[in-house]
Amino acid sequence: MAGRHVEPAVAVISEAVRRWFEFYEVPPDERASDTLSGAAVGLYGDGYRTVDDIATLLIGAYVGLWATRINAPTSEAVH
């Protein structure tokens, strides 16, 4: 993989979660971050490796802040 930069998982997950907050224009929230990070870890484990892919799936699965609170979908429900 010479010449190819691979970001560490934590950087990809962190940036994907940050983009979720940015997309929904809500301030970072610890409870929501925990939910979103857990889902992002699951997605990463399922083979999604780019910030764009994970952020897009999070944005589609967790529509707004309320979705991180009540009956939040699991990473399996994102697919």
Summarize the SSE layout with pairings:
Layout: H1 9-24, H2 30-45, H3 51-61, H4 75-78
How far the N terminus sits from the C terminus, by CA atoms, comes to 29 Å
Shape: globular
Question: How many E strands?
Answer: 0
Low-confidence stretches: none
Biggest sheet statistics: none
Structural class: mainly alpha
Describe the model:
There is one protein chain. The protein has 79 residues and is an all-alpha fold. The chain has helices at residues 9-24, 30-45, 51-61, 75-78. The protein has four helices and no strands.
Question: Outline of this structure?
Answer:
With 79 residues, the chain is mainly alpha-helical.
What tags apply to this protein structure?
79 residues, mainly alpha, 4 helices, 59% helix
